[in-house]
Design brief:
This protein has a two-stranded antiparallel sheet with strand order 1-2. Strand 1 and strand 2 form a beta hairpin. The longest helix has 30 residues. The chain is 68% helix and 1% strand. The chain has one domain. The protein has 394 residues and is mainly α. It is built from 16 helices and 2 strands. It is globular, with a radius of gyration of 24 Å.
């Protein structure tokens, strides 16, 4: 029988950290692209728009695949009740906290910069709770969606880890064959070809429909379930990378260089199909290179992996607050971007280190595991009496 995957895949930890840092960089460029956002620079640039569209092709798909891979290890540890409770504490508590606190800053800056409000932050507060309240925690919609996916997929994944192990083994055997892992793109291709991207039936965010993200979460579970599938992905990395690049260029030509093709036309179907396949190729390339070069642990990885969720929770609010002032400066726009990036990163890390990481109450609010309580010191006499060669006091 094929050897099971190890209990800790350090390359997935590295990729999670690097992906969240890429999300940070991606959001730092949204001041300067065409798409509307809470705060915008007066001038936008086509090359930034190209980068943004390229990033949305693979960035969120990668995060959902990594999240699905994490479910492989989480599902078998406890029953359904504890699993759902753990997911709710880790994913939903930070969303509620954000919705009630720093999401207000994001909404205020959005109204302020778009000329829809002119008063102070404290004057705006009633408006937020009456008109603008965001129960998804602004950019934390990803955590809400991941919680829903975890609950929906739990019965299937638990079955795979139990009575359905033979079915999972057969799937793993098929996916381990040369090139077979590319077939996991087929459900996503069908979804984007058969359903209109603008349809409310398949609500979309960050470039893809919610149903595509659901499939990618399940695909992440499948690709880490056996060593043979991961080994196949690693072997194919040098094929997956150029395929992803070629398909990315092709989807730009089919969907953006001319007028956007209407749903139901051959160019729309081909463009979205190519985009879905290219996205999966990029994800496979990243997983393959990660497994080849990032399969090690370090103290930095341990620190960074714990900081990932609080960093993600804080990053957009800090970027918007810093960017609100910087985009008004009379300096070159490239320098504006660099300034926003350089100022925001240490602010986020200082907030994490001195406001979140060290206090259990804050760790709970940011979805982190609590620090264990320090052991109670024994009385000095008890310690002395336990030493070899010492008699208890008379």
């Amino acid at each position: 029988m094929e050897k099971k995957a190890p209990t800790r895949l350090y390359y997935l930890d590295w990729l999670r950290v690097l992906a969240i840092l890429t999300v940070f960089v991606y959001h730092s460029t949204r001041f300067f692209n065409m798409e509307t956002w809470n705060v915008k620079n007066p001038t936008w640039y086509p090359w930034v728009e190209v980068w943004n569209r390229f990033a949305t092709t693979w960035l969120l798909p990668l995060l959902f695949v990594i999240s699905g891979a994490s479910l492989f290890f989480a599902v078998g540890k406890s029953g359904a009740g504890k699993f759902i409770k753990d997911k709710a504490l880790r994913l939903l508590v930070p969303v509620v906290v954000c919705a009630l606190t720093h999401a207000l800053l994001q909404a205020y800056l959005n109204r302020l910069t778009h000329g829809e409000f002119s008063g102070s932050y404290f004057q705006y507060l009633p408006n937020y709770f009456l008109d603008d309240f965001d129960g998804m925690g602004a950019h934390l919609w990803y955590l809400v969606v991941l919680f829903v996916f975890s609950v929906l997929l739990y019965p299937l994944l638990r079955w795979f880890r139990g009575r359905g192990q033979s079915v999972l083994s057969k799937l793993d055997g098929l996916l381990s064959r040369p090139g077979a892992v590319y077939a996991l793109a087929l459900p996503a291709i069908l979804l984007v070809v058969l359903f209109d991207y603008e349809s409310p039936v398949i609500y979309q965010n960050a470039g893809w429909s919610i149903l595509v993200y659901l499939w990618l979460t399940l695909a992440g579970f499948l690709v880490v379930s056996h060593e043979g599938v991961q080994a196949s992905i690693e072997r194919l990395r040098w094929l997956s990378l150029p395929l992803g690049l070629v398909l990315a260029g092709s989807q730009f030509f089919l969907l953006t260089l001319q007028h956007y093709p209407a749903f139901g036309t051959w160019r729309n179907a081909l463009g979205w199909g190519v985009r879905a396949l290219g996205s999966w190729c990029f994800v496979l390339a990243i997983l393959g290179f990660g497994r080849k070069h990032l399969g090690f642990n370090t103290p930095f990885l341990k620190y960074a992996n714990e900081a990932v969720l609080p960093f993600y929770i804080l990053h957009q609010t800090v970027l918007l607050c810093v960017g609100y002032f910087v985009v008004q400066w009379a300096i070159p726009d490239l320098l504006k971007w660099a300034t926003i990036l350089v100022i925001s990163l240490p602010i986020i890390m200082v907030l994490y280190e001195f406001l979140v990481r060290r206090f259990n109450a804050m760790r709970f609010l940011f979805g982190m595991k609590l620090k264990p309580k320090a052991p109670i010191a024994q009385p000095q006499e008890a310690i002395a009496s336990s030493l070899p060669g010492r008699l208890p006091p008379a």
